[in-house]
Amino acid sequence: MAIFSVYVVNKAGGLIYQLDHYAPRADTEKTFSFPLDLVLRPHDERVVVAFGQRDGIRVGHAVLAINGAEVNGRFMADGKDVLEFLGNPANYPVSIRFGRHRLSSNEKLMLASMFHSLFAIGSQLSPEVGSSGIEMLETDTFKLHCFQTLTGIKFMVLADPRQAGIDSLLRKIYEIYSDFALKNPFYSLEMPIRCELFDQNLKIALEVAEKSGPFGPVS
């Protein structure tokens, strides 16, 4: 079981804190001969697998490295276009590492803002008056848990679906925010959280939750 990441979003939908706690590695590196038996396409400034799955390589995985050198989007370390390089038979055999694309800071900001909007839509669509909005989104590989305070601050935790005690963890994170961010005289409301004590205590809370589950009764 694991807790993957924590997001804090202000009442306007802006991301004010994000921590990647644990990132499962799913990279796969293989040596290929020409022609490449995978179909690659450019997508969002990177090269991804569009068709063909084998040996842990899945559709949607991005090209992360070629012959041990990291790839920057659609270009190799020496500036060569990835698709042009892989289309040349003279460059084979070639070693390619595939894996899940790492989100950039801008992508995290955008996704946090999108969830803020979905949260509001969920609250309005609810047949019950005064709905709190989306509290959990579940997939086969993770669950997104959300706790919104009375002031509109949202605390979001992405965790393994089997991880217990997330409800009490969210409230513990709120306590840490109140103690080490709000009581910090140099912190301004709604602004990014840059506080060493907040970071330290949050990481301790995540480690405790992973090892022992809830801090208290689970609601």
From TrEMBL:
<keyword id="KW-0472">Membrane</keyword>
<dbReference type="Pfam" id="PF04099">
    <property type="entry name" value="Sybindin"/>
</dbReference>
<comment type="similarity">
    <text>Belongs to the TRAPP small subunits family. TRAPPC4 subfamily.</text>
</comment>
<dbReference type="GO" id="GO:0031982">
    <property type="term" value="C:vesicle"/>
</dbReference>
<comment type="subunit">
    <text>Component of the multisubunit TRAPP (transport protein particle) complex, which includes at least TRAPPC2, TRAPPC2L, TRAPPC3, TRAPPC3L, TRAPPC4, TRAPPC5, TRAPPC8, TRAPPC9, TRAPPC10, TRAPPC11 and TRAPPC12. Interacts with SDC2.</text>
</comment>
<keyword id="KW-0931">ER-Golgi transport</keyword>
<dbReference type="GO" id="GO:0045211">
    <property type="term" value="C:postsynaptic membrane"/>
</dbReference>
<dbReference type="InterPro" id="IPR011012">
    <property type="entry name" value="Longin-like_dom_sf"/>
</dbReference>
<keyword id="KW-0813">Transport</keyword>
<protein>
    <recommendedName>
        <fullName>Trafficking protein particle complex subunit</fullName>
    </recommendedName>
</protein>
<dbReference type="GO" id="GO:0005783">
    <property type="term" value="C:endoplasmic reticulum"/>
</dbReference>
<keyword id="KW-0770">Synapse</keyword>
<comment type="subunit">
    <text>Part of the multisubunit transport protein particle (TRAPP) complex.</text>
</comment>
<keyword id="KW-0333">Golgi apparatus</keyword>
<dbReference type="GO" id="GO:0030008">
    <property type="term" value="C:TRAPP complex"/>
</dbReference>
<keyword id="KW-1003">Cell membrane</keyword>
<keyword id="KW-0256">Endoplasmic reticulum</keyword>
<dbReference type="GO" id="GO:0000139">
    <property type="term" value="C:Golgi membrane"/>
</dbReference>
<comment type="function">
    <text>Core component of the TRAPP complexes which has a function of guanine nucleotide exchange factor activity for Rab1 GTPase. Plays a role in vesicular transport from endoplasmic reticulum to Golgi and autophagy. May play a role in dendrite postsynaptic membrane trafficking.</text>
</comment>
<dbReference type="InterPro" id="IPR007233">
    <property type="entry name" value="TRAPPC"/>
</dbReference>
<keyword id="KW-0628">Postsynaptic cell membrane</keyword>
<dbReference type="GO" id="GO:0006888">
    <property type="term" value="P:endoplasmic reticulum to Golgi vesicle-mediated transport"/>
</dbReference>
